[in-house]
Automatic annotation (TrEMBL):
Taxonomic lineage: Eukaryota, Metazoa, Porifera, Demospongiae, Heteroscleromorpha
Domain Heat-inducible transcription repressor HrcA C-terminal: 106-323
Listed name of the protein: Heat-inducible transcription repressor HrcA
Pfam families to which the protein is assigned, alphabetical: HrcA
GO terms of biological process kind: negative regulation of DNA-templated transcription
UniProt keyword annotation of 4Fe-4S present: no
Organism: Geodia barretti (Barrett's horny sponge)
Source species, domain of life: Eukaryota
Amino acid sequence: MPLPERRSTILTFIVDDYISSALPVSSNAVANSAGFNVSSATIRNEVGALVEEGYLLRPHSSSGAVPAEMGYRHFVGGLDLTSPPPEGLVTMLQRQIDVAPDDIDAWVRIAASVIADLIGALAFITAPRVKMPDVKQIELLRLQDMLVMLVLVLQEARVYRRVIELDQNVNDSQLEQARNKVTAEVSGKGVRELVARKDREDIEDDLERQVWHATIDALMHADSVPGERYMSGFGHFMSDPESAAQPAKGALAMSALENDDAFTELISGVTYRNQPIVSIGTDNIRPELCDYSVIMCGYGGEVDARGVVGLISPMRTAYGTSIPTVTFAAETLDAMVNRG
């Protein structure tokens, strides 16, 4: 249910003021600001209602209010996401493109640093990841009587392994037959085509079905691994009042970027149509980030050379600047990848 207009305006004012000051906002400060032609008592009642509804918090009973997760989400929902990025960002990024117009990896490294310094947050960008290479070879190695390792070799010498716990004991001839059949099915086919056929109904042999599913799972995992990631702004992130007050939480949040599996999960929901994703607090898929906000935008989907631009910061962040910044950087990279 949408908030009444006056209550929504008060909430927006408090969130905006708190983002700027990092200090609780009193009802008197709201009442004394331009645009509220009502009494302090009315403001206090509206603020009290916002607290009860979960949009605001009071750190202490006698203090002013600070935004809760719901308050930040309401604030972001009211932003114009088509607003232009900061002029400084446009100038700096364009300058880097002019210096290295054909070196996307170099541009990505510099862009991460520019964004981190401009926003004062932890920025990350993954280099565009080209289309998955075809399968070159499949091997099945017996580990124990009922345990087999699938070894998946791709054309670019990438190797992925997956352990299969067999439903029944089989001999080497049966393993070889299953390997040959699955190899014939995957050779020369793209990952998306194979994933679409994951639940094949034409497989009658149980062993072949197990090997097929393990192969598709390994391909899906290989396809989800992002390109090389570049990060910048660790100092900005840890010097924020929120991270400085709880450095252990800040370090845990950064671990989501440094751990391969955690990072892959973090960006798993990104689309590649230049639509930004804003995850606030418990919206985040990674528990290490439940006290932070993550803004991400994908690029390169049109030519299947996918990458991600993102920011991690405390929930108290300048969304009105951060979201257009991330989106513009992704759009710029998108144009470079498409041109290249």
